[in-house]
């Protein structure tokens, strides 16, 4: 089966060019200005954009254990709609993904039923309890790409040092969710003006920064590859910049919501604006955009974190942290940062594709002959409208509900198969 | 008393939804209600047939009694729902509780809850007007109105008055609502307490002054308000001991002398005598602490009357 995509504005190694692209079965077989060969299916794509399939290093699929929030089928379906072809599943499932059987379960389910490729991140400590090192090398033989206790943070610096030494031994990257529990306390939103006004307990940026300071120091001595999840503050960026300047293998990611929203969004007690780390000040947000543009932040990750309506629909301080993000990630950033000129389209695609793939040495994120046909075809002039009724994720806890954004994904191909097609 | 349509069906989440003129209108209405409370037969038929629910998901006998007395004196029927936060956590959600109550035909809710923003939820779920009787550390607008009423009654125009509030500012919903109301009416407000009990950005958020030294904070004050200091803040690591707190922040004869002579002394209650305020001050001629309680009933009657459109 051959599919020919004609005259799309195609992202190839950092630049856009108008060309034809032919796929056969699961591979890209030819990229050229004009392809005259016969295909089974031809998509006339003039005026449209063709990107490599998006790669998400940070997602919560809730499977096994919390499948009322999401499962591998609904989660990958939502991911495909958002243009993702490879996503990395965080291990805070129930039970925690801290052993090879659990890793294999996710791989098998995703392979049999999924709408995109799912890579697994194993737990850093057993049960993510922050007490003992997980069997990460065994999980690595089962195919994990990194280890993390995301959602939790190892508080014990001695244990963290040993986790790093051990992970470095097997060349496994560690992803940290940087949060000092004592400083974060019972905090609900950023410890800023809005928290002072609403009387909600604050989570200071320092709660994130002291752990980043600690772990970049520990990483320097252990030589582990350290990736800092969902960075949210200007102070955190400064620490990461200093660490990278020393030549350490340290990287960080940012979420769409931290790039686009601030603490002001929490002023109406909307629990869909409640996540960790919290939405911070405008100064922090602006620093994140600049750092993404200039390369200090390596990639965008969704931190897709589904929660059921009845869990979010309650008193603000009793609602769980987290928001969904697969279906909106590209469009919200394109709409707000690319159209405004703050970020180039090239950079946006790079941080959604090649850059994250490179961090975890994933063989994806590029359009080239011989590569897997993981691709996104988008019409940047068309709108998407985010409504609870048209969200494919089982959970509807999106911070973007009832808003419109430019940048509609028409097709997502994963290994040459159409995994999403817009109506 | 005239009713005005602009108050009909409105919520009282906090005072930021009300203009200075509207606040003054409420105070005028409360003045009329206070007169009723001084009568031998303290009841008017104005809200006959209306049902008011006090929904208290946090203990407060005093505030609940004040709301219930206010409703009774206007001849409304009163039902009371009380629950522990823990019960509402484990069992029925706030949403289901409100659906259940609403099915019984409630016209107005008065809610106390430890979670900021919960009055907004009660309104969202019921569609009925809600008076916030205190939501966590967020807001306590009826307390602020009764405080402002008490000052206005004694000193007249609020504009230009120097008001100093002393104590655990961080944990106080009373301060937050008072700051909004008092600033709207043109007062100069200073908040004072140790840094560990002071929220960040107070000047920017409220336009008030922040002082950490009691003597400086009290200088030339027309009104001095003490706040309840809770022992549990000590175990939270916010200050070392009540003794040391008292040494630096107690309202006493020695400290109050820096304020204006005859400055009004206030406290939202319940007081910890000997900790944030000494009896020599709490029971002095300058103190209007007991009157504040009486005014609370009048202010709550005024709000219920205005919101439910009672006929005088």
The gist of it:
The complex is a heterodimer of chains A (423) and B (312). Chain A has helices at residues 72-81, 100-113, 136-141, 157-169, 181-184, 193-198, 205-222, 234-245, 256-260, 282-294, 309-312, 329-338, 345-352, 354-359; strands spanning 2-12, 15-24, 27-32, 41-44, 49-52, 54-59, 84-89, 117-123, 146-148, 174-176, 189-190, 202-203, 226-228, 250-254, 299-300, 375-386, 403-414, 417-421.
How many β-strands of chain A, per DSSP? 18
- Specify Rg of chain B, calculated over alpha carbons: 19 Å
Proportion of residues in β-strands of chain B: 5-15%
Q: What share of the residues of chain A does DSSP label as strand, in percent?
A: 15-25%
Looking at CATH, the homologous superfamily of the largest domain in chain A is: Metal-dependent hydrolases
Structural overview:
The complex is a heterodimer of chains A (423) and B (312). By secondary structure, chain A is of the alpha/beta class. In chain A, 30% of the residues lie in helices and 24% in strands. Chain A is built from 14 helices and 18 strands. The radius of gyration of chain A is 21 Å and the shape is globular. The two termini of chain A are 23 Å apart. Chain B is an alpha/beta fold and 312 residues long. Chain B has 14 helices and 9 strands. In chain B, the strands form 2 sheets. Chain B has a 5-stranded parallel β-sheet. In chain B, β3, α5 (118-126) and β4 (130-135) form a beta-alpha-beta unit. At the A-B interface, α6 of A face α5 and α8 of B.
């Amino acid at each position: 089966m051959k599919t020919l995509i004609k005259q799309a504005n195609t992202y190839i190694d950092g630049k856009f060019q108008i060309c034809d692209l032919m796929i056969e079965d699961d591979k890209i077989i030819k990229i050229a200005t004009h392809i005259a060969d016969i295909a089974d299916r031809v998509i006339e794509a003039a005026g449209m954009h063709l990107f490599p399939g998006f790669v998400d290093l940070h997602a919560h699929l809730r499977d096994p254990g919390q499948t009322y929030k999401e499962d591998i089928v609904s989660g990958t379906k939502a991911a495909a709609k958002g243009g993702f072809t490879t996503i990395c599943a965080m291990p805070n499932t129930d039970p925690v993904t801290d052993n090879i059987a659990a890793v294999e379960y996710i791989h098998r389910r995703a392979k049999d039923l999924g709408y995109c490729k799912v890579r697994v991140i194993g737990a850093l400590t057993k049960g993510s309890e922050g007490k003992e090192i997980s069997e990460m090398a065994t999980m690595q033989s089962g195919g994990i790409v990194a280890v993390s206790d995301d959602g939790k943070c190892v508080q014990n610096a001695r244990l963290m040092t040993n986790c790093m030494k051990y992970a470095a031994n097997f060349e496994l990257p560690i992803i940290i969710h940087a949060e000092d529990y004592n400083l974060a306390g019972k905090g609900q939103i950023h410890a800023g003006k809005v928290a002072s006004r609403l009387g909600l307990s604050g989570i200071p940026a320092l709660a994130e920064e002291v752990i980043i300071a600690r772990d970049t120091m520990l990483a320097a001595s252990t030589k582990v590859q350290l990736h800092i999840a969902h960075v949210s503050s200007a102070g955190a960026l400064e620490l990461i910049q200093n660490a990278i300047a020393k030549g350490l293998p340290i990287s960080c990611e940012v979420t769409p919501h931290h790039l686009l929203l601030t603490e002001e969004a929490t002023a109406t007690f909307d629990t869909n604006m409640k996540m960790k780390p919290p939405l911070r000040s405008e100064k922090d947000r602006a620093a994140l955009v600049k750092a993404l543009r200039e390369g200090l932040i390596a990639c965008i990750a969704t931190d897709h974190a589904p929660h059921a309506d009845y869990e979010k629909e309650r008193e603000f301080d009793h609602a769980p942290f987290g928001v969904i993000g697969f279906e909106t990630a590209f469009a919200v950033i394109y709409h707000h940062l690319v159209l405004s000129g703050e970020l180039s389209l090239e950079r946006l695609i790079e941080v959604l594709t090649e850059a994250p793939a490179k961090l975890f040495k994933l063989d994806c994120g590029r359009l080239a002959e011989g590569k897997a046909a993981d691709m996104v075809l988008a019409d940047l002039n068309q709108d998407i409208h985010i409504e609870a009724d048209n969200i494919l994720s089982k959970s509807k806890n999106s911070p973007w509900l009832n808003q419109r954004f430019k940048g509609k994904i028409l097709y997502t191909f994963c290994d040459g198969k159409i995994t999403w097609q817009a109506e | 008393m005239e009713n005005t349509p602009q108050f009909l069906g409105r919520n009282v989440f906090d005072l930021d939804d009300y203009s200075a003129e509207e606040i003054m209108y409420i105070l005028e209405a409360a003045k009329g209600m206070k007169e009723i409370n001084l009568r031998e037969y303290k009841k008017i038929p104005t809200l006959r047939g209306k049902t008011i629910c006090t929904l208290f998901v946090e203990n407060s006998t005093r505030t609940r009694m004040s709301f219930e007395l206010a409703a009774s004196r206007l001849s409304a029927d009163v039902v009371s729902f009380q629950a522990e936060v823990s019960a509402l956590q484990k069992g029925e959600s706030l949403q289901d509780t409100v659906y259940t109550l609403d099915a019984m035909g409630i016209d107005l809710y008065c809610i106390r809850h430890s979670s900021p923003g919960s009055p907004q939820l009660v309104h969202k779920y019921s569609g009925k007007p809600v008076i916030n009787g205190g939501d966590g550390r967020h807001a306590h607008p009826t307390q602020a109105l009764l405080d402002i009423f008490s000052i206005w009654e004694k000193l007249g125009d609020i504009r230009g008055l120097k008001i100093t509030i002393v104590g655990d500012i961080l944990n106080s919903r009373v301060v937050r609502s008072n700051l909004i109301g008092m600033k709207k009416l043109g007062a100069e407000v200073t908040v004072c307490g140790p840094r560990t009990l002071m929220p960040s950005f107070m000047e920017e958020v409220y336009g008030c002054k922040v002082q950490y030294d009691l003597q400086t904070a009290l200088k030339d004050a027309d009104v001095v308000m003490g706040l309840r200091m809770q022992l549990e803040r000590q175990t939270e690591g916010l200050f070392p001991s009540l003794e040391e707190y008292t040494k630096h922040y107690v309202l006493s004869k020695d400290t109050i002398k820096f304020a204006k002579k005859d400055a009004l002394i206030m406290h939202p209650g319940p007081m910890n005598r000997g900790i944030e305020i000494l009896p020599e001050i709490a029971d002095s001629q300058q103190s209007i602490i007991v009157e504040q309680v009486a005014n609370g009933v009048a202010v709550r009657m005024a709000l219920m009357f205005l919101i439910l459109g009672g006929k005088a």
